[in-house]
Specification:
The chain is mainly α. The protein has helices at residues 2-26, 42-69, 72-92, 99-115, 117-123; strands at 32-35, 38-41. It folds into two domains: 1-69; 70-126, no CATH class. The chain crosses the membrane at residues 6-26, 47-67, 73-91, 98-114.
Length: 126
Amino acid sequence: MFLAFFSLLLMGEAVLLPLIIGYFAFASGDTGVTLNGVETSIGEVRLEIVLSLFVGWLFVVAFAVGFWKGVPIARHGFVTIFVVLLVIIAVKSSSLNVIPGMALWTGLLYWYFYRKTNVSNYFSPK
């Protein structure tokens, strides 16, 4: 039940992200934006923002469809992204107080996708 709700939530995000991408793609070049703590104009970072959002949109669509159809690679990819983010945060972050929360979420996702019986059975080959 939760997986279906989460899949629908991701599909909703997949519908909204192109609108956000469109805003940044067509916004006036002198519009101010803060990126990585530095105030700059959208014209200087437009390509970086649009490409990042587009790659995020591709992941969202892939995971939404994968969860909905029960494709096993979707759960592997989703958990892997959280593990990679945990490693990046541990290496790059100056504030280490985020690591326990991120580790907790990664552990919960691992338990949900691999240890919870009904979800594990849903993703197992038929």
